[in-house]
Fold this protein.
Amino acid sequence: LKIQRDEHAQVYKVTSLIDIHVHLHPLKLFRAIRAWFNEHQKWDFCFKDLNPEAIAAHLQSQNVERFVFCSYAHKPGIAHDINTWIAEASKALKYHGLGLATVHLGDQDPVGDMEQALQDGCIGLKIHEVVQKIYIDDVRFDAILAMIEKAQGMVLLHVDQPIDRKKSVTIPQRIASVLDKHPELKLVLAHFGGKDVLDFMKMTDKYKNIWLDTTWVFGNAAEPALPFVTDELLEQQSDRLVYGTDFPLTPWPYGRELENLRSRGLGPATLQKLFHDNAVRLLDPWLDRYRISIASP
Ligand SMILES: [Zn+2]
């Protein structure tokens, strides 16, 4: 097995990556988020510079051809300004980074916020059920998700279970109810959807637009986040896996997940899909619509 693994790592040369889960935030919010992790998780972040240009330049040096980034509104009243910032940051990065909007259901007009964000250059929505305490199956999301579905945008979702509904409905059931209503919605489950990943993997036949993002799952090889996810399962789901990292909100340097994934027993075709080709499908038509503009000499 050892020999086989080394062979795979040698066969698969990383030439171009697409990272679909990067964090860029307005500076004040970014400082607050990092301080929270420093205090509560005792993490020492490897990459200290919080400026979008510095983060993008580092990603470029790591062969990241394109990336998708997000922020989030943890309370009402700030989503609109964050979205303006995201759209401007994406433009300033010459679309090397493509932005996801944020909405808060406690705001006056979250549907209008989403519409504006799409017009301004965002390519979809990030929902963080843990931080935002709003849930994707909330009926108030219906019009927003329908809009994203129609625009061929994506939703990057960090799932959690609402405390008051813990027993009545499972997380995979909640996700199924959303996709039954929005079958064309491209839904990316951050962190493989967490502990329910095996249920989500069973749903990928029926729901053609579920994607699983590798963020954190393979960050620590000695102690993987979801140790029951085998290479065999990864090969079976090879068309649904997309590479994400949470960079720069990680206590390890960029490339850790990549090396851990490469050192497993996965075939080069699966790695090529995971690191690049699946994201090209996921990000259609946005990679063409927002081509990286290269300044003329
Ligand atoms: Zn994240």
In short: DSSP finds 13 helices and eight strands in the chain. The two ends are 51 Å apart (CA to CA). The longest helix spans residues 27-41. Residues 21, 23, 190, 246 surround zinc ion (CB under 6 Å).
